[in-house]
Amino acid sequence: MYVAVKGGEKAIENAHRLMAEERRGDLAVPELSVEQILQQMRLAVDRVMSEGSLYDPELAALAIKQSRGDLVEAIFLLRAYRTTLPRLYTTEPVDTTAMHVRRRISATFKDIPGGQMLGPTFDYTHRLLDFKLAAESSVEPAAHDEQVGDNGIARVMDLLESEGLVEDVVVDDDDPVGDITRDPMTFPADRDLRLQNLARGDEGFLLALGYSSQRGFGDNHPFAGEIRMGEVAVSIAPEELGFEIEIGDITLSECEMVTSFKGSKSELPRFTRGYGLSFGYNERKVMAMSLVDRALQARELGEEIEAPAQDEEFVLYHSDNVEAQGFVQHLKLPHYVDFQADLVMVRGMREEILKKQQADNSEEAA
Amino acid sequence: MTLDSNAFDSNNENIQARKHWMSVLARAEASQLEQALSELEAAPKYMHLRPPEIGMAMVRGRADAKGDRFNLGEMTISRCSIRLEDGLVGHGYVTGRNKRHAELAALFDAMLQAPGNGPVLTESVIEPLHAIQVEKRQTDSAKTAATKVNFFTMVRGED
Predict the structure, then answer these.
(1) Measured on CA atoms in the order A132, A136, A140, A142, is the torsion positive or negative?
(2) Who's near A250: CB < 8 A, 6+ residues apart?
(3) Best residue in A45, A148, A300, A319 for a mutation probing chain B (most B CBs within 10 Å)
(4) Chain B: nearest CA to A214, how far in angstroms?
(5) What Cα–Cα distance (Å) separates residue A257 from each residue in A44, A157, A274, A284, B118?
(6) What GO molecular function annotations does the UniProt record carry, in alphabetical order (chain A) (predicted)?
(7) CA distance A286 to B15
(8) Which of B77, B83, B104, B152 to mutate to test the interface with A (most CBs of A within 10 A)?
(9) How far is A267 from A165, CA to CA, in rounded Å?
């Protein structure tokens, strides 16, 4: 428990002024604009939108500026802003098969319908610092190839599915969709709740859990079946219209992981699936998410739940960095009364033990 | 609040046309619509049925891309409904927080439904904006296509 304290207003105000001054930095250096962050720090913007659980690139860029680049703080700001707006619609489920693909790769098949398109990626770079960027860079324009395929590239998983080599996808659109922003998490948690939780979960946490599952803590034996990034249309069906309309596009990343196979006396062996989906270009996030999604299917697949990544209470209760940072950082708030109580107790215990030792010692001496 | 739906809505072909222009208006820049409005002979008079407002839409995905639905996260959107002097009602729904964009989209949505003027506006406003949007897409696709990996297969007896 922490208690309300009075006073310190002036110090707090001055601390915020000092923070604002440090955020601005040397006045001789031009101020960073929100538009510059939006254009040139786009992957930070995407992460903030994803974990802030609100798709609005301008707001995410503003949050990054305000938080001085502290992304978890920026995510917190976006989450807080989110609570000020009414929810007017629920969109139709996005169709990622119809995605306007800007990157699409598969690690399971070399030749796939529609081909492998690397898109803008850090993959295959040498991870050597590029000192040319320290000066102003002149960018060579991107290459164009007019041999453009259609949108709506076939899915790699469909190739496996057509042979029955992977679990069937179940669709039940009469089933109500859970929402962790409106109802508290309950256990056992269905996959809709788990995916919503993971989609806004902390990338670092999911990365570590996904990694742990690869290293044997809940072995998945995964392959990246397909990874996509690009734009999908967003549709709503407003009551006053009575039909569905597209209101724009959003950038999404998606990962379908092909994971360990199983079979039984009654079933032929086949692969299982893990799924990751995220706002923006967040490839590492969706890969990690798909590993954790698969690990969390342990209960439904009748697997032994032995590892942290398979434990849904452990994963879902600790994935949210807004909650996590809040609880960890609340330790900074005044706990004077609590601590006073502990202090009195520890002093009392010490005194008692010391007295007893003294008594024992004098008995031995006697 | 009741938002009259126009008699216009009853015809399927008209709905298809309207869906098209509404999506083009939503994907356009507000500045492009402002420009198109300023080029009209006379600025249309209208009243708000629903003043421009900002809110959110919960974006849904599907597990494994085509399975059961789940809530991915929210996005900001703006909407507005207007009525022209002649009674035609227009609705605007756009992503983001630009209220004026939603208002302009609603205004054009109403004007585009006018039997006489609608087709003219489709020609002069919607199709040029659509062409710009398609071209942007094609440019992106051409850049992506240039990153396509062309594997060559080593001969190994069998594929």
Answers:
(1) positive
(2) A55, A94, A231, A232, A234, A279, B59, B75, B95
(3) A148
(4) 20
(5) 24, 9, 5, 13, 49
(6) lyase activity
(7) 37
(8) B77
(9) 11
Specify whether the CB–CB gap between A45 and A61 falls below 8 A: yes
Overall residue count recorded for chain A in this entry? 366
8 Å CB contact between B21 and B108:
yes
- What is the amino acid identity at position A135? A
What single letter denotes the amino acid at residue B81?
A: S
Look up residue A324 and give its two tokens.
């996590």
The DSSP letter of residue B41 is S
B41 min Cα distance to partner chain A (Å)? 28
Please give the residue of chain A at the shortest CA–CA distance from B57.
Answer: A89
User: Residues B111-126: pLDDT tens digits?
Assistant: 999 998 899 999 999 9
| Tokens, residue A85 | 């707006």
pLDDT at A363: 83
Do the Cβ atoms of B75 and A56 come within 8 Å?
A: yes
Closest Cβ opposite residue B72 in set A116, A256, A277: A277
Task: Supply A243's token pair.
Answer: 């039909």
The span from the CA of A217 to the CA of A211, in Å, is: 9
Are the beta carbons of A166 and A271 closer than 8 angstroms?
yes
Q: Cβ separation of A240 and B81 shorter than 8 Å?
A: yes
CA nearest to A115 within chain B: B148
Using N-to-C axis directions, what is the helix angle for A71-82 and A57-66, rounded to 10°?
Answer: 130
Nearest CA in chain A to B73: A53
Domain residue limits, chain A: 9-84, 96-120+151-319, 335-361
Mark the ranges of chain B whose per-residue pLDDT is less than 70.
1-11, 151-159
pLDDT at B2: 46
Set of chain A residues whose Cβ sits within 8 Å of the Cβ of B143: 142-144
- State the smallest CA–CA distance between residue A202 and chain B in angstroms: 14
Give the whole-angstrom CA distance, residue A204 versus residue A27. 34
Q: What is the mean pLDDT of each run of 10 residues along chain A (366 residues)?
A: 71 94 96 97 98 98 98 98 97 96 92 89 90 83 77 84 86 92 93 97 97 89 94 96 96 94 76 96 98 94 92 97 94 88 92 94 81
Of B9, B138, B146, the CB nearest to A242: B9
Domains of chain B, by residue range, sit at 9-128
Distance from chain centroid for Cα A73: 14
